[in-house]
Amino acid sequence: MILVTGGAGFIGSNFVLDWRRLSDEPVVNLDKLTYAGNLDNLASLQGDRRHVFVRGDIGDSALVDSLLNEYRPRAILNFAAESHVDRSIHGPADFIETNVVGTFRLLESVRSYWSKLGASGKSDFRFLHVSTDEVYGSLLPDEAPFTEEHPYQPNSPYSASKASSDHLVRAYHHTYGLPVLTTNCSNNYGPWHFPEKLIPLCIHNALGGRALPIYGDGQQVRDWLYVGDHCSAIRHVLASGRIGETYNIGGLNEKTNLSVVQLICSILNELKPRADGKSYAEQITFVQDRLGHDRRYAINANKIREELNWAPAETFETGLRKTIQWNLDHSAWVSRVTSGDYKNWIDIQYQSAAPEIR
Ligand code: NAD
Ligand code: DAU
Hints:
Blueprint: E1 2-5, H1 10-22, E2 27-31, E3 51-55, H2 61-71, E4 75-78, H3 85-90, H4 93-115, H5 119-124, E5 126-132, H6 157-176, E6 180-185, E7 187-189, H7 198-207, E8 212-215, E9 221-226, H8 227-240, E10 246-249, E11 254-256, H9 257-271, E12 284-287, H10 302-308, H11 316-329, H12 331-337, H13 341-350
Parallel strand pairs: 1-2, 1-4, 2-3, 4-5, 5-6, 6-10, 7-9, 8-12
Antiparallel strand pairs: 9-11
Helix pairs in contact: 1-8, 2-4, 4-6, 7-9, 9-11
The structure holds nicotinamide-adenine-dinucleotide and 2'deoxy-thymidine-5'-diphospho-alpha-D-glucose.
């Protein structure tokens, strides 16, 4: 069986759902259920004996040791993290605690478990660490996309904490021989995406008649990948990635934030027109920029494509249309995750920048 951490979050739950659909191999899912983790994402697995959910912290060594000894996984996929850049700017402590200290404690438990396996168990074992393109820093408009050799230049507390975790993973391979794999992926979007991130936030705000907040001039560039394509890339790396290697994953979809939001508006105009017949684009509002905002990310995904024969299935247009339709079909999920604490975050982050406009 495999052990997934953070499997109640956005990407982790997509990965677990796809895994259960595509494989008979059981999965143990360890998640702390922070504000970003949601068991509703996994409701379709209720009664499935090949999915075991455990609520807990990757930094709880006693719990992780006991799970490893009980379930004896052949692989661990580490999705668990604090993941929102803006939250890391307001309060970095949780990011250091989970992404750095938590990953360190997890690695210690895994090292102890792995070191006691027999020879074939040891060589077949994998620790796959899910990371981000943000560790590479920001690109100028004419610079080539990030390759795996690009120097680490993290600029936010979030990306610095992820860079630290990547370094620890690398060190555990180099020093102890732990069979690790690291993936560095670009921006994901798709089902179960928490509406604090740009795409689901703008879909949610558009439908609620609120402002669509664009930081600064909206000309920052991100390289968007549909979450199902990220999950398929992770399965390729787990199955055939070379031990100790890093694989960049990206969608070849460089877009400015403003153009992403404009496309959301035009798809929504078609799928769910505003009652007054006007375009959702009227709700676009420029707000104060993010501190230290990285200008451009772009991924060179040649290595995973050439070595592991992976390619994304979705274009940005097909993936975004599916995502918007998913949000329209799952309004009850969106309502549930935006009740409670969500409002406090929106108040802190946007203050009066996102007023009701109709
Ligand atoms: P998310 O915030 O939606 O989910 C994170 C999950 O981890 C939540 O379910 C949360 O409850 C859980 N978690 C947090 N702290 C934990 C802890 N200490 N112990 C156990 N569980 C804990 O994040 P996501 O967007 O799904 O990202 C998953 C991973 O992918 C992260 O490592 C992130 O850095 C990386 N990543 C994300 C993107 C993206 O665009 N979202 C892109 C590239 C890489
Ligand atoms: O690049 C991969 C990263 O992508 C992941 O490692 C992170 O976990 C994930 O959150 C994401 O980080 P970003 O900061 O790029 O995503 P976010 O959706 O927060 O923002 C996307 C862009 O949109 C970014 O340039 C900031 C901008 N933005 C964001 C919000 C929330 C706005 O203009 N307005 C907003 O309200």
